[in-house]
UniProtKB/TrEMBL annotation:
Keywords in alphabetical order: Membrane, Transmembrane, Transmembrane helix
Entry's transmembrane regions: 33-56, 82-103, 109-130, 137-160, 180-204, 216-241, 261-285, 297-316, 322-343
Name of the protein in question: Membrane protein YkvI
Coiled coil ranges: none
Superkingdom of source: Bacteria
InterPro entries assigned: YkvI-like
Organism per entry: Jeotgalicoccus saudimassiliensis
Xref: PANTHER family: CONSERVED MEMBRANE PROTEIN, MEMBRANE PROTEIN
Amino acid sequence: MKKSFQIGSAFVGLIVGAGFASGQEVMQYFTSFGIWGTAGGIVTTLLFIFLGYTFAKLGTNLRANSHQTVLYYIGGKFIGPVLDIVITFFLFGVAVVMFAGAGSTFNQMFGITAVAGSIIMTAAVILTLLLNTNKILGIIATITPYLIAVIFVILIYSIFSMDLSIAEADELAKQQPSAASNWLLGAFLYVSYNLAAGAALLIIMTGNEKDKKAAGMGGVLGGLMLGILIILIHIGMFARIDVVAGKDMPTLELANQIHPVIGLLTAVALLGMIYNTAVGMLYSFTVRFIAPESKSYRPAVIVIGILGFIASLIGFTTLVGSVYVVMGYLGFVLIILAVAAWLRKPQNN
């Protein structure tokens, strides 16, 4: 059970920065649909549980040491290479969104310009990849309990300080920008883009796990924790939609409403999760083309990092509403093929 919890926590840690740490993602895919956003959160939880289990089992059954192994297995020699290319560039896209998210966090919390904040995060990620590639994912799982604690504090505050009626909150929430045309599509797109970004690393994490039951249960626990966190963040933002409407970092805004110290702790947690996700994604993208021991690795890290920073200048909210939507639709293909591959061949327990 301990091993399953470690796998599940690492899975949450990988997706948290990309998927909902800021609250902006949850706002566009759930809260913007008002009360129905809660139903979307429930559907998302069930999908995360099932698909987390599916990808974890595929990784451990195939003894995968790279996401390529699974992608070529589920897609065959024709679709496999296409999936490989798509997923690889998804990794870069998520890193870009993380650089932009860091800029928004620094700006909203510390008054530093968004560009300066993005430069700080980009430099930190590049230096990490230059100096230490063996332990880049080592602290990801440790952030998850901290995040859960912060979210619970924010949720309790939001509910007990709610000034609007449910009807008023519902009306105001529906005025916020949405990333999908309806709540059900939003739920599926949300799961799809998150797995497009996180499946590669989940596969690698479970590929060396000999205990197949522990790996599968790790996927289940990770999916459950992700779903619960999403629902909690959604409820918290819905309750105080009058405060967070129009904010780049709604979670941070709620934390600041409680107390500046809580806001500071939340900002640190956000930056830590963004950093972890950016490092993991940029590293995975780089080593897909260049081996870490290659002489070209360090120059490539610097060039790719700078390109990611330049792309991040588009802006965090804009990137979330565009990059992630495209990832979501393309991620549907990955999910369908993965489930089909899992169903067509009996899985060993």
